[in-house]
Amino acid sequence: MPKHSDASAPPTDPYNPAATQLLDDTHWELTNWTEANGQPRALPGRAVGSQPITLDFSTESGRRRASGFSGCNRYTGAYDLKDGKLSFGPLAGTRMACASSVGGAVEQPYLDALAHVAKSGVQMNPPQSLQLTLDNGAVLTFAERAP
To answer: Does 1 fall in a domain?
Structure first.
């Protein structure tokens, strides 16, 4: 029987789709958005006085609800986890004026992105992260945050 130490074992898939079942009642902040061509998209939340884009998953009401801040406004809607795939139902949002040009430029693309998730995965080893790959090949990476 072959023997090997844990150190020589092949690495696990850091974005295991099965781990998406662990998303219930977690809180995330968008830290990186890479377009399909490899170019990063500017994100709000890095400048003083701006708020980061957030994504919260809750089962408090007995149903799966996603909510967060999308750059200018708050949003909410249903989410589903089926066969390791994360999907979002229609999302509703507030209609506030946007003080941040970066937030305004990214808000609608972000909300559209949530409707086009091709695959998702969660890295549960520290630092924990959530990765959403879109139909067009863009990748959104979130870091876990305190509620």
So the answer is: no
| Residues of the chain by 3-state class (helix, strand, coil), percent to 5 | 15, 40, 45
Measured distance CA(6)–CA(38) in Å, rounded? 33
Domain count, the chain: 1
What lies within 8 Å, CB to CB, of 22 at 6+ separation is: 122, 124
Closest CA to 102 of 43, 47, 48: 43
- Report DSSP state, residue 33: E
CATH code, domain carrying 36: 2.40.128.270
Bridge partners, residue 13, by sequence: none
Which of 71, 80, 88, 82 has the alpha carbon at shortest distance from 29?
A: 71
Give the range of the structural domain holding residue 79, as residue numbers without chain letter: 15-144
Residue 105 lies in a domain: yes
- Quote the pTM value: 0.84
Q: Can you give the pLDDT of all 147 residues of the chain as single tens digits?
A: 555 555 555 555 656 666 667 889 999 999 999 999 999 998 887 555 678 999 999 999 899 999 999 999 999 999 998 877 899 999 999 888 787 777 788 999 999 999 999 999 888 778 889 999 999 999 999 999 988
